[in-house]
Write a structure and sequence with these properties.
The protein is an all-alpha fold. The protein has helices spanning about 1-45, 50-55, 70-75, 80-110, 115-125, 135-145, 150-160, 165-175, 180-190, 195-205, 205-220, 225-230, 240-245, 255-290.
């Protein structure tokens, strides 16, 4: 009986200490979480404010008299209908291209006896330390030589063509964790590397596809420099990221319209992330475990 009482008492003390630590953690992190979310909330709030209210009571989150004409003005004045269509086409093309190339490269690095494999990996890793702007001139010359400048395909190749090292590494680590017995079972039936890749690797790698897809969707959707450079002579092909600068005039800026346009621009990103967040987490966990 004495042992049982001690066990119950220690259990109660453990629960009490856990509750105290949990309360202390919440007291510290809830304000930090609010501070982290405040810029986003401020942007959405200003999308529903008039310009005078924004400048006079800019720090206030809840608008006094919410208005919707900022969204109407953003949609029409900034040609967001065309920019949105361009962003969808280019972003989807980039995601598909990166998924195909990165998954095949990741499988090659994970399962094949490549000559100079370590050297290739070292070169890929080295490219991560160079800023994106370093390669923009040779990429532009290649796209221009192919006659693809000011086209959807040109922008897609410019964004999705350069090596996406993190995507390749995620696929490589995941494929390395797949048991060799699964591959051998297909090869016994006469299947080659391509058959193994399509029948075994691709179905198992759905979480990684979601993770890489979300990362590159966000990156391509928010990209500014590449779509601007490769559509200089054709403004009608610009994306939302470039279109946001239509709210900056010479010596002035439409801040409430810009906030409304930015709010519209982030809706697809939030939708995609919420739809695939389960696979996104599974893909990260699987790659780390691998």
């Amino acid at each position: 009986m004495t042992t049982i009482k001690k066990t119950v008492k220690s259990s109660k003390l453990f629960k009490l200490n856990y509750m105290k630590k949990s309360i202390a953690t919440n007291v510290i992190f809830i304000p930090l979480c609010f501070l982290w979310c405040y810029p986003f909330l401020w942007m959405v709030s200003n999308a529903f404010k008039t310009p005078p209210e924004m400048f006079l009571k800019g720090l206030r989150i809840i608008p006094e008299k919410p208005v919707l004409y900022n969204f109407v003005r953003a949609w029409k004045a900034a040609r967001f209908e065309q920019y949105l269509l361009n962003s969808v086409i280019i972003t989807c093309g980039v995601v598909i291209l990166v998924l195909i190339v990165a998954s095949m490269a990741g499988y090659a690095f994970a399962k094949q006896n490549l000559a100079g494999k370590k050297l290739l990996l070292a070169v890929l890793l080295a490219t991560m330390f160079f800023p994106k702007s370093v390669g923009i001139i040779p990429i532009y010359k290649i796209i221009n030589a192919l006659g693809l400048n000011n086209t959807y395909l040109g922008v897609i190749l410019a964004i999705g063509g350069p090596a996406h090292v993190m995507a390749i590494l995620l696929f490589m680590r995941y494929f390395m964790s797949v048991p060799k017995e699964l591959e051998e079972s297909v090869r016994i039936d006469g299947g080659g590397y391509l058959t193994v890749f399509i029948r075994i690797m691709l179905p198992l790698a759905k979480p990684v596809f979601a993770t890489v897809g979300i990362f590159n969707f966000i990156s391509a959707w928010n990209d500014f420099m590449v779509p601007l450079i490769f559509t200089l002579n054709k403004p009608s092909m610009r994306t939302i990221g470039v279109g946001l600068y239509a709210f900056f005039g010479e010596g002035t800026a439409d801040w409430t319209g810009l906030c409304a346009a930015a709010t519209i621009a982030i809706i697809p990103i939030i939708t995609v992330f919420l739809a695939f967040q389960r696979f996104f987490i599974e893909g990260l966990e699987g790659s780390v475990k691998g």
